[in-house]
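Model it.
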Amino acid sequence: MQSDLNFYVVWNPNGGPPTYRHPSYEDAEREAARLAEKCKGHEFFVLHAVAAAKLRAPVEIRRLDPDRDIPF
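Modeled.
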């Protein structure tokens, strides 16, 4: 899974979520500089993935017994 974390994103706190995974720090840094030039006064951060989480088990659905398990 470690190789899945080898990417960078450029984020502007005043904008939407990042949409592109840059394969290297240098690529992300160039994009942050390009966006900062284009959007004067805005700050762009280069972020590196350090961890990931994913639910690996299926979701369990349990039906309530209306005669015994009234949830209120």
